[in-house]
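Morning. Coffee machine broken again, so started the prediction first thing and wrote up yesterday's gels while waiting. Chain of 69 residues, entered below exactly as on the submission form.
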Amino acid sequence: MTCELKERLLASYQATTRSFAAAVDELHRNIGTSSLNEYQRLQRLTDEARLKSEEARLALENHVATHHC
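Came back before lunch.
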């Protein structure tokens, strides 16, 4: 039997990790070529994406630990 909540949490984790990877790529592409303000903006977006990814991972891990699915 498939746990629908686990599937949604997994999809959320996958989406947030893709967003984090894209943010890191964008930051990396702009190192040394963007203004300080732009770099700081990209760094902030990358940090936010990392936090969302970590939150999604924790939600998935907590669900699996609690429901054993």
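The first helix runs from residue 4 to 29. Going to sketch it on the whiteboard this afternoon.
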